[in-house]
Amino acid sequence: MSLPARMDRRRIISLRIAGIEVGMDPSWMILALLVAWSLATGVFPNLYEGLPVMTYWWMGLVSVLGLAVSIVLHELAHSLVARRFGIQIRSITLFVFGGVADMADQPARPRAELLMAAAGPAMSLALAAALHGLVAAGESAGWPATVLAVPAYLALLNSVLAIFNLVPAFPLDGGRVLRAALWSLWGDFSRATRVAVRVGSAGGILLALLGVVAALSGNVVGGLWWILIGFFLRSAAQGELQTLQARHVLEGITIRDFVTTQPVTVPADLSLDGLVNDFVYHSGHEMYPVTDGDAIVGSVGVEAIRKVPRERWGQTRVDEIMQAQSADNTIPVGMEVTDALDHMHRTGQSRLLVTDDNRFAGIVTLKDLLRPLSLRLKLGDA
Questions:
Q1: 123 contacts: CB under 8 Å, gap ≥ 6
Q2: Which terminus of the chain has fewer Cβ atoms in its 10 Å neighbourhood, N or C?
């Protein structure tokens, strides 16, 4: 599943593969434990009776590891094709509903969308075929059935993953294929997105209703899981539509009109005691530009202050904890609002310094940038 860059996640494990950050959201542990428990206490004991309990658990845990690798490879396939078309993939995150690739932008052409969407299911089908081949080779070589159980399960799982993702319910891969087809047919990305979102929302509701039926029929755990997935799909589809509307509303608008041009500044040699008592408690701001003479040299925020023990505030200077001025916390006054929002998302900073021809022009906050979006949406400009 590939979503635009709107899914901020706290990763508990992170590594880089092919230059892309791959991480695990804490919610992934819910899925991992559920799958491992189901395999170790139900599926494998029913298929292979009489084994030690720990053997079933090892089989379950190895299967969960294989599931994680399968999902990462699925998302990597999306990501590598996206990079071929010039789209930056910031990260891949495993979470409770599977995996998500964090895209910096939308594809520019229907063909790019189609190939990106198809790459994930194609990878899953390739993995399923390879695992089936491994099982066949193992059977010919006389490997124990318990050894073959894990690749056999993963082969089935990758097949299901490919088929499920090809369902034309946006933002699943099949929904993106549908959008690409409609986009190519109509030549209108916005119209194609709206139709794909409606189909995806309907698919999410249908899945949730099927979950209710399953739960009432006695399959409570499975039914609840389908309900949750259904609501997630509907929410994700609606989120895509909101992103599209926001970009349409803010297109061409720069941050120039939303900059606070005379912000409260603090000197670099000020102690944290002075910063808190003379500035934070009086002005109530979350971030302050830091000056050294007449020059802006960085910024300091409340979060940085909190990391310093209170008893050290009197001996700690602002320039010891400030964030030096850099491309991460500084943007030009002519930057478009949508690009500024993407910059904030990418860097994790909601308050930025602003320059005009390399001269300090003020600061801008996430709240400043969301205000025009809110007003325009209320007035029906989307």
A1: 73, 74, 76, 77
A2: C
C-alpha to C-alpha distance for 316 and 137, rounded to whole angstroms = 66
Exactly one of 21, 49, 75, 336 is catalytic; name it.
75
The closest alpha carbon to 376, from 344, 333, 338, belongs to 338
Given a contact cutoff of 8 angstroms between Cβ atoms, the answer to whether 55 and 49 are in contact is: no
Which residues make Cβ contacts (< 8 Å) with residue 174, sequence separation at least 6?
117, 165, 166, 167, 168
CATH of domain 255-378: 3.10.580.10
What is d(CA 352, CA 354) in angstroms, rounded to the nearest whole number?
6
pLDDT in tens, 329-382: 999 999 998 889 888 877 888 899 999 988 899 999 998 888 777 777 677 554
Q: Are strands 20-24 and 13-17 parallel, antiparallel or unpaired?
A: antiparallel
3-class secondary structure, 288: strand
HEC profile of 331-375: EECCCEHHHHHHHHHHHCCCEEEEEECCEEEEEEEHHHHHHHHHH
Q: Which 3 state secondary structure label does DSSP give 292?
A: strand
Asked if residue 32 lies in contact with residue 68, where contact means CB atoms within 8 angstroms, the answer is yes
State how far the Cα of 236 lies from the Cα of 242, in Å rounded to an integer.
10
pTM: 0.76
CA 81 to centroid of chain Cα atoms: 18
Is residue 75 among the annotated active site residues? yes
